[in-house]
Design a protein that fits this description.
single chain, 270 residues, alpha+beta, N-terminal domain of MutM-like DNA repair proteins, Helicase, Ruva Protein, domain 3, 4-stranded antiparallel beta sheet, 5 helices, 10 strands
């Protein structure tokens, strides 16, 4: 599933091709995404795309009339292509630009979204209750301490809660907890202030590093046959059950928390 770093890299990859361009036509080939693509999406025809930002795992392309919200779902991607490139079966949406290029949303599993928002997009039901961005100034140890206070839930589940902080997916939660030396099973309310400070730093570092890696590995948004290439990372614990810890040599363990595989070092993480 595309996570926050992949979405950020996708946005950075397509933005130079779409920002400042005018929409000639919106082609909806299949409305059946996670939510039906609304007919109002054609309102963006004739509009110039003035901005492109990310909020959590949503991409928002702003115009004078409204905002196009895109989500890649479980397996989607965006590509900037010429109209001569044949549509694939699961190319659900194409935005024809005055540059002669198309922005295409490809989503085989149809868990993604393409919605049209009028008014303030941050007040949309999908966005208004989200927690702070992990790389922004609103996410700090004070915020995380408040979110953890009195909580008996495992710390890993708390940092994966989008109401607490957005974008900390399963891989990044496991990796950040390892970097901070915290057992993922530890009740959130019992994690000390100094360790929560380390965790905030670790979350920021692992996400920033993944975004940076994405800039080199996710390198082709204008080639129909290009693969996303999501992060060839050197992971410390995730998906390394039974392998030696890169720090102490102990065997990495796997457990299930919140129905998700969780990997940790029983010696380094307390």
């Amino acid at each position: 599933m595309p996570e926050l770093p992949e979405v950020e890299t996708t946005l950075r990859g397509v933005s130079p091709h779409v920002i400042g361009k005018r929409v000639r036509e919106v082609i909806v080939r299949d409305k059946r995404l996670r939510w039906p693509v609304p007919d109002t999406i054609h309102e963006m025809e004739g509009c110039r795309i003035d901005s492109g930002i990310r909020r959590a795992k949503y991409m928002l392309f702003g115009t004078s009339k409204g905002t196009l919200l895109l989500h890649l779902g479980m397996s989607g991607n965006l590509r900037v292509l010429t109209p001569e490139v044949p549509f694939k079966k699961h190319d659900h949406l194409a935005i024809m630009l005055d540059s002669g290029k198309q922005l295409r949303l490809h989503d085989p599993r149809r868990f993604g979204a393409a919605l049209w928002i009028e008014g303030d997009p941050m007040q949309h039901p999908l966005l208004k209750d989200l927690g702070p961005e992990p790389l922004g100034g609103d996410f700090d140890s004070k915020h995380l301490r408040a979110a953890c206070k009195g909580k008996t839930a495992a710390i890993k589940l708390v940092i994966m809660d989008a109401h607490v902080v957005v974008g900390v997916g399963n891989i990044y939660a496991s990796e950040a907890l390892f970097m901070a030396g915290i057992d993922p099973r530890k009740p959130a309310g019992k994690v000390t202030k100094p360790r929560l400070e380390k965790l905030v730093t670790a979350i920021r570092e692992v996400l920033a590093a993944s975004i940076e890696m994405g800039g080199t590995t996710l390198r082709d948004f204008v080639n129909e046959s290009g693969e996303p290439g999501y992060f060839a990372q050197t992971l410390r614990v995730y998906d390394r059950e039974g392998d030696p810890c890169r720090v102490c040599g102990a065997k990495i363990k796997r457990i299930v928390l919140g129905q998700r595989s969780t990997f940790f070092c029983p010696k380094c993480q307390k």
